[in-house]
Design a protein that fits this description.
With 565 residues, the chain is α+β, with helices and mostly antiparallel strands. The protein is 64% helix and 10% strand.
């Protein structure tokens, strides 16, 4: 039944009961109209489908009210057309509801029934247990009551029983799937174009069915069948392929309504006599085969679609797992390399620093003890030794800085002073003739940063910019707000008008030990990236040969950095 979530919870069961009772009464009235001689038993009993669908869509605790309401309303709806209300009518109604309860219990317990009917087992369960199995109870009980009340001759028992059983089974096959599928899902997942397509399909199917069944029989009974009947099958296939269970149930309802009307009037390929059960009996076989075939095709397509979606989902999860595994493996390899490099750095620091210190002290002593050697060729050689000692000391320090774990102690503070300090430190040893332009907005929100580590990183960037302009140039630095990956960041740009870099160099400059300068260690920019990563930021480079280079550093604001961490 409808969920009716917009109503207060306590009123939802009441409204479901009202809707169920109204639908059951309307179905009983229609079923009574379709009860023709000689059996006067309905050849199409829609309430059987209404009852089964209502019980399958509600909780067990609501069943007593639904069953009682249906038992009370059925005799009055049927009696208005045929005979006065008697106790026999209530017993027959109880048998019909017993059929629905048994069918619903079997489907829930045995099949684990899904109201959306998107599995083949749901369709087979509804056909076998709901339509063919449970209806045996109501047919047997109903005909036995009519026989005991002398409203049915013993010779007519089995013909009437067959009509009763087939009528209830057809009600289950045609009405229950329609109510179950549309109540469970409605038009969810369909856009406007798909809905218009369904409307067009139903209109074309209705016209085709009307054209087939409006014609009078082409031959005397019983040889009245004509192959033109199959004209409706392409529309059923269309409904199953495009709309699955919901489409085929709606298409079957349209086809059944039109064909029932014409067959009852004595027209169509299955008509024997007007207003006679024999005509409807032939039509029932056709409708049953068409409906069940369409439902099986639709459910098989649904299972195939779900299997494809599951495979696609699993493939996506597998790709994500492989990517995660590759990233984790790369991280482990990097950590192993860093650990090995750390051990090497510690050894270098111990084994190289002491000799370097001794060499430096010895040179200083020689200059002090023999001042005359500080000039001429000997002095030049001693200067070269000092430079090499200093270069080796710098290499050892950079190596230690690179291998030392970076754990920034982030504090909320302004970025501008840190940038200004790094810029001033870099300009002390830079070439003259460099025009510096600053745009450091002090009103920007604070950044979560480690001032010491970020000073080291920015000093490296500014130093690279200064060294790229040995003959002078322009150095521009700017801080402004930007959005990176949907998060507000401070964007720091450092631009120079130096010689620039090729695309190949830009892809490698952050690699450890990669350098284009003879005196460089190749660790400066690698250290920059590690420090910026430790601040949950990002650094990139853009350069054009002969025009200059721009380094861009994104750093999240204080609150955003905590969210990333």
């Amino acid at each position: 039944m409808p969920s009716l979530e917009s109503l207060p919870r306590r009123w939802q069961p009441v409204l479901r009961l009202v809707l169920f009772t109204a639908a059951y009464a309307l179905g009983a009235r229609l079923g009574a109209v379709l009860a023709f001689p000689p059996e006067h038993v309905s050849a199409m009993w829609p309430p059987s489908g209404v009852a089964l669908a209502g019980l399958l869509l509600t909780r067990h605790r609501e069943w007593p009210a639904l069953v009682l309401a249906a038992i009370l309303v059925e005799p009055f709806a049927v009696g208005a057309s045929h005979s006065p209300v008697t106790s026999t009518g209530f017993v027959i109604a109880a048998g019909n509801l017993l059929e629905a309860m048994v069918g619903a219990l079997l489907l829930r317990r045995v099949v684990r029934f899904h109201p959306s009917m998107d599995r083949v087992r749901d369709v087979l369960g509804l056909v076998g247990l709901g339509a063919l199995g449970a209806t045996l109870l109501s047919a047997s009980l109903g005909m036995s009551m009519l026989l005991s009340a002398q409203r049915l001759a013993p010779a007519d028992f089995w013909p009437a029983w067959r009509v009763f059983w087939v009528g209830n089974a057809m009600g289950v096959l045609l009405v229950a799937p329609l109510l179950l599928t549309w109540t469970a899902r409605g038009t969810s997942g369909w856009n406007r174009q798909r809905r218009l397509e369904l409307v067009a399909l139903l209109l074309l199917l209705g016209v085709a069915t009307h054209w087939v069944f409006r014609m009078p029989p082409s031959a005397a009974p019983p040889a009245t069948f004509h192959p033109v009947t199959y004209l409706t099958f392409p529309f059923l296939l269309w409904a199953a392929l495009r709309f699955e269970a919901r489409g085929i149930t709606m298409a079957a309802a349209v086809m059944s309504s039109v064909s029932l009307l014409h067959t009852a009037l004595g027209n169509g390929p299955f008509a024997q006599f007007a207003w006679h059960n024999d005509s409807l009996t032939f039509l029932q076989s056709f409708l049953a085969v068409a409906s069940v075939s369409g439902l099986l095709l639709a459910s098989a397509l649904s299972e195939r679609r779900r299997a494809q979606e599951e495979v696609s989902h699993l493939n996506q999860e597998l790709r994500q797992s492989l990517q995660t595994l590759a990233a984790t493996q790369a991280t482990l390899v990097q950590r192993e390399r860093m650990a090995a490099l750390g051990e090497l750095s510690a050894t270098v620091a111990h084994e190289v620093r002491n000799p370097l210190g001794a060499i430096s002290n010895a040179l200083a002593a020689i200059r002090r003890l023999t001042p005359q050697m500080a000039t001429g060729p000997t002095g030049s050689l001693m200067d070269i030794m000092d430079e090499e000692v200093e270069r080796l000391a710098l290499l050892v320090n950079d190596l230690l800085d690179f291998t030392r774990p970076v754990e920034p102690r982030l504090r909320s503070q302004s970025l501008g002073p840190v940038v200004e300090g790094a810029l001033v430190a870099s300009l002390r040893s830079g070439a003259s003739g460099i025009n510096v332009s600053r745009d450091l907005d002090e009103s920007l929100p604070p950044i979560a940063l480690d001032a010491h580590l970020l000073h080291v990183a920015l000093t490296n960037l500014f130093t690279n910019a200064v060294q790229a302009m040995p003959a002078g140039g322009s150095l521009v630095t700017r801080i402004e707000t930007d959005v990176r990956s949907g998060t507000p960041h401070a964007r720091l740009t450092i631009s120079d008008t130096g010689h620039g870099m090729t695309d190949e160099l830009q892809q490698r400059i952050f690699e450890p030990f990669f350098t284009t300068r003879a005196s460089g260690t190749g660790l400066g920019l690698a250290i920059v990236r590690r420090i910026v990563d430790g601040h949950h930021g990002e650094v990139i480079v853009h350069s054009t040969v002969g025009q200059g280079t721009t380094f861009t550093v994104w750093l999240p604001y204080a609150g955003e950095a905590r969210a990333v961490a």
